Amino acid sequence: MENILEIKDLVVDYGIIRALKGVNMSIPKGKIVAVLGANGAGKTTTMRTISGVVKSASGQILLEGKDIRNKQPYVIAKRGVSQSPEGRLILDGLTTEENLRIGGYTVKGKHDIKRGFEQVYGLFPILKERKDQQATTLSGGEQQMLAIGRALMMQPKILLLDEPSLGLAPLIVKDIFQTIKRIAAEGVTILMVEQNARQSLLIADYAYVMELGVIKTHGTGQELLQDDALIGAYLGKKKEAKQQNELKQ
After folding, report:
1. pTM (2 decimals)?
2. CATH of 3-248, one of 3.40.50.300, 3.40.50.2300, 3.10.180.10, 3.40.50.1110
3. What are the residue ranges spanned by the domains of the chain?
4. Of 29, 104, 161, 219, whose CB neighbour count within 10 A is largest?
């Protein structure tokens, strides 16, 4: 299987603190890969290093075989890496549509921009209804849709999603994860950082579990769902029976 992104022996330091301690990951083209772990595990640092916001001390980040490590963020974006950041970072004072248009700043040609809007509005019809509304007045769920849609406007090869379910109601979370599956089905590779382990593993083709800057374990989503130790650590004992029932349905 062809890997669109490979991370090799990645090391990141924050001053005297070593945040990533030789991380290795392979992200296959067209698949959903989840990165799980507790707060402080290094998940967001990994994402921000891929997108160039955080600089690494050593290692490689290969996008289609070419090293993008420590390139400027705009250079990495132009090469096809787009990120929906933790916290959404909706731009105040702009409408929903203006936020989306800014997301497509690397796209050249009116036809491609139009195609981007069609894709986003097809995935999130509510954003089209709210296109002239001030973006910061949208609900939390709608703002998360906007953040993902804005990242998609770049028509990326790989989409980085940092905590897409954070702070959302359960029904909205379910909708967001179903939409992530639809995006992947359209051919976009997705690397997703999430604390919602159960939902992530249900849709992920592959997953990595991080702990204190290292990869603790990895495997397919279904394999990790069957890992009792992982379920106990990240899903909680009370959820184990519920999870098994859902897998049987």
Report:
1. 0.88
2. 3.40.50.300
3. 3-248
4. 161
